[in-house]
Amino acid sequence: MNSIVSLFPATFPHETAGLVVFGVIFVLVGIGVGFLLGRNRLVNVVMSVYVALAFTNASADVLPKDFPLSGAWLFLVLLVLLTLVDRSLFEVHVPPSPQDVFWRVVVTGIMVTGMVTSVAVSMFPKKTIAAFPITVPVRYFGTPLAEILWLVIPLVVLLLLNKRSK
Question: 130's torsion region: left (phi>0), alpha (psi -120 to 50) or beta?
Fold first, then answer.
């Protein structure tokens, strides 16, 4: 990370350079996820995040306390399993709209990436997250307000996208 930040001018604040680099990487990963999974699979991932998060939170008392990442691992395993299950599991279909396909996939991919990042940041121990070279993950994904927003905004975006296509 420091080598990437060194590409910026010396007068450029280190924190801002880290934020710019993180933002660019986040958007590129979101776009990649969007095109890799496709429109309907992205909606399946959104629903899978809610189900996996609910199951992980409900089983928090049963998970081993001596392994602090057990909740995060349970969430990630459930998310992968639910996503790999047949896409008719949740039967949410985003109607095709040829002129909007590109930006729908981009926006939904970024929303899914933010949602999964927020849940992952909230489940990892704060000491592990604090070891990151920049504080962006905690500030924009780990605060209680950010967690709520990253769980609500994808649903609102999907609602708006479906309304617009009708």
Answer: alpha
CA distance 29 to 35: 10
Please say if the pLDDT value at position 11 is more than 80. no
Distance CA 79, CA 50 (A): 9
Residue in 94, 102, 96, 99 with CA at minimum distance from that of residue 157: 94
Any idea which residue has 């604040």 for tokens? Answer: 13
Q: List Cβ neighbours of 136 (8 Å cut-off, separation of 6 or more).
A: 18, 19, 22, 23
Polymer length of the chain: 166
Q: Are 70 and 64 in contact (CB under 8 A)?
A: yes
Q: Could you report the per-residue pLDDT of 129-162, keeping only the tens digit for each?
A: 777 766 667 778 888 898 899 999 988 888 887 7
Among 135, 145, 43, residue whose Cα is nearest residue 95: 43
pTM beyond 0.90: no
Q: Which residue has the tokens 């609500």?
A: 152
* Token pair of 53 as six digits: 């998060």
